[in-house]
Amino acid sequence: MRIENWGVKKTSFPPRGAPPPAPPPRPTPIPCPSLFPLWPGPCPPLPGGGGGVWGAAGAPNPPPTPPEMQNDGTANSGGLWHWRIVQLTVGLSVLCFAAFYLLGGFTEESTRQCIRLSAKVSVVLFSMAFAASAVQGLLRNVLTFWWRMNRKYLGISFAIVHLLHLAFLVLLQQYFHPVFTLAKTTSLFAGGMAYLFVVLMLLTSFERFSKYLSKKNWKLLHTVGGWWIWAIFASSYFKRVLHGEMEYLPWALLVLAVGVLRVVALVRK
After folding, report:
1. Which of the four, 90, 95, 141, 251, has the lowest number of CB atoms within 10 Å?
2. Whether residue 67 has pLDDT greater than 60
3. Distance of CA 145 to the CA centre of its chain
4. Cα(199)–Cα(195) distance, integer angstroms
């Protein structure tokens, strides 16, 4: 009697000794719209869940990644992204500081120049990091996407430059002018708390330290710390403007604009 294999699908096997079939090709990542013509390239792997540093509280969650900015997360990232931002900002700052001392010598004036420059670089980097989520929520385009995705590294750059600012103040105190001795106790306390927040926020930017905090406590630290640092910058610059030092007006307006953006983002949320 003949038996038919009804419904059984025949499987074909490659002949013995034949090479295994080649794996399917990996999808080619779609390049990001180039933000800087000198640094074109594909997008880096996108961080999951937003993450980052320098205060996500009050800002809307990041929107879905636009199709033109998606990739499979496997390509080497090109462009001015992530640690390249830290290398560029901190590297250029250190070169400027070194130039002041090389040209002017180890003097009080050279130290004060480093203090002034590090303060200005710090407030710009802090403003960019602190306002990134708010700007992304209000204006969603290629530039704000890049801004939001690099918020963590802008914050790290700020922390490093601002700690260098403290180092120059210590040099001024030790060798040229008793800046800390003459400062008021309230100013020392407020500034000391700001630097404490800077260090804690910098450390908790990395998983090695952030794993010891719950999501709620991490968010609380970065929110309170971000607003405390903002208040110190606002107080410092507006106090100088009120005393007639109008060259500080642009920096005061920058800090004010960042605060307004954060409040608007909080209200919209």
Report:
1. 95
2. no
3. 13
4. 6
Class of the CATH-defined domain 80-268: mainly alpha
Is the pLDDT reported for residue 231 higher than 60?
yes
What b/e readout covers 33-61, taking b as 16+ CB neighbours within 10 angstroms?
Answer: eeeeeeeebbbbeeeeeeebbbbbbbbee
Inter-residue contact 114 to 168 (CB < 8 Å) = yes
* CA 109 to chain CA mean position, Å: 31
In this predicted structure, what is the pLDDT of residue 14?
Answer: 59
The 10s digit of each residue's pLDDT in 209-222 is: 888 888 889 989 99
pLDDT of residue 265: 85
Q: Please give the pLDDT value at position 58.
A: 36
Residue whose structure tokens are 């009120």: 242
- Looking at the DSSP bridge assignments, the partners of residue 31 are 42
Which pLDDT tens digit goes with each residue over 2-52?
A: 444 444 455 555 566 666 777 766 655 444 444 443 344 444 444 433 334
